[in-house]
Amino acid sequence: MKIIRLTGPVILTLSLAVSLLAHHSAAGVDQTKTVTHEGVVKHFSWANPHSYLEIEVINAKGVPEIWNLEMMPPTYLVRAGWTSKSVKVGDKVSFTARPMRNGDPGGLFVSIKLPDGKTLGQTAPRGGAAAPAAPVYQQ
Questions:
Q1: Domains of the chain by range and CATH?
Q2: pLDDT tens track of the chain, all 139 residues?
Q3: How far apart are CA 137 and CA 139, in angstroms?
Q4: Is residue 40 exposed (0-12), middle (13-18) or buried (19+ Cβ within 10 Å)?
């Protein structure tokens, strides 16, 4: 009986430790700055727990580099007007992000201007602004 009473708390403690390790920090991102670049979409991942964008940007030396941008999960993006088809591979876009502190290409996504001129962020409008139209779900 003593073993059973000890096993429950041990399992609970280990479960919580694994959960805490699974979540990560944005400490590597400079959240005091934003950068804006133009590039071509190479990959868009519509997934939990984070969506991702990979955009090829020509850097200051004229060399292409891939910017990896971490985004919110689809549940937030849908409320901000996104669908899984909002961005397509090959789209020429302009994006704003919070860059990595170490200078690596990438960071936290802020917004994107699509080829049609539409700008999407990752949170729904606040302060009485009109909400985007309900998205059409496409498979």
A1: 35-120 (2.40.50.1010)
A2: 555 565 655 555 544 444 444 455 677 888 899 999 999 999 999 999 999 999 999 999 999 999 999 999 999 999 999 999 999 999 999 999 999 999 999 999 999 999 999 999 988 776 645 545 444 444 4
A3: 7
A4: middle
- C-alpha 109/C-alpha 121 separation (Å) is 8
d(CA 20, CA 14): 10
User: Cβ of 77: how many Cβ atoms within 10 Å?
Assistant: 23
- CA gap 46, 63 in Å, rounded: 28
Q: How far is CA 74 from the centre of its chain?
A: 9
Backbone φ and ψ for 21, nearest 5 degrees, come out as -70, -30
The amino acid occupying position 21 is L
| CA pair distance 103, 100, nearest whole angstrom | 6
